[in-house]
Amino acid sequence: MRTLALLIVVLSTPVVIPTAASAPDVFWLDRYGRLQWEDEMARLDNFAIHILNDPNLMGYIDVEVGKRSCASEAISHAVKARNYLINVRKLSWDRVAFRDIGYADSFQVTLWLFPRGKTPRYTPDYQPATPTHVIERCAQRKKRRQ
Prior knowledge:
Layout: H1 2-12, E1 27-32, H2 37-53, E2 57-65, E3 68-70, H3 73-87, E4 96-103, E5 108-115, E6 134-136, H4 138-145
Parallel strand pairs: 2-4, 3-6
Antiparallel strand pairs: 1-5, 2-5
């Protein structure tokens, strides 16, 4: 008898199935820290496959640097990843964007997908450097060593 009562309660509970209108318009596909370039290319390949398989999607590369970083490191890393997607994986230039989202405790790349032609409802806020962050002029230091 208890099993029957439990079954009736379970079956009478409404099931909510999300529709396209209520689904999020942006989601992160991948997130990673510092990787060897070969390993990062594999992650970017997967990202490219998702974008290529759905003409309604656009990709976004967000990069934040860690406590100790080089000046403009986030931008240069994002440009390298974007150039790989465009030149090697043959994505159209207008399907991949990037942003420097500032400074965190550690280096991190986040790969986002969102509907093409729309501004995503979620974009991470830029995090400025704090007094605990060390920003070096790495390019100048390398030139002096040569």
